[in-house]
Specification:
By secondary structure, this protein is of the alpha+beta class. It is built from 7 helices and 7 strands. It has helices at about 45-65, 80-90, 95-120, 130-140, 145-160, 170-190, 195; strands at about 5-10, 15, 25-30, 35-40, 65-70, 75-80, 165-170. The structure holds zinc ion.
Amino acid sequence: MYTSPYIICEYCDSVYHRPQLSLHQKALCQRCGAVVARHNLLSIDQSLALSVAAGMLLLFICFYPVLMLKAQDQINSASLFDTVLALAEGPISLMALMSAFAIVFVPALQVVLMIWLLVHARGGVRAPAFRGCMRALAALRPWGMLEVFLLGCLVAVVKLKGPLDAAPTLGLFALGFLSLLMIGMAGRDVHLLWEKLP
Ligand SMILES: [Zn+2]
């Protein structure tokens, strides 16, 4: 199943024989204590299914309201896309650009790259431009800010009381699920493709 019987600690370069791990077990580096291997929960098919689900959720919250703002008898709602557009209209268009990058562009690119890699991995081959895609995924990880946006929305729901009232919508729950999916998947399960594909 794995192409090499060895694993290397990515922090201190120690080399180990690959351990047999069962559910919820992980192997730690003896020198620096970093996690060098974990039990792999998801198969490639399952990872692909979750990536497609993440893509659909992202599309959903781009156009479906994430928050509803109630002021007296007026109700306004905003999707991910609306927030970016609203910022772009004001004097802070640089903020709009950064928000669009961190909460729309980066997650969308991550999902597309994951689907591209996993569709090919299903057939047991490396996708064209495999190295570039894997490096791009690793480089993009710190730039995705969906969970920060989620936190902002939750704070707004809890804190905004009085003349202005923020209410959660179905979109907010979708955003929560999507954030969890992105945190769980863009990291270690995709990382294993380095070792599993010839
Ligand atoms: Zn180490």
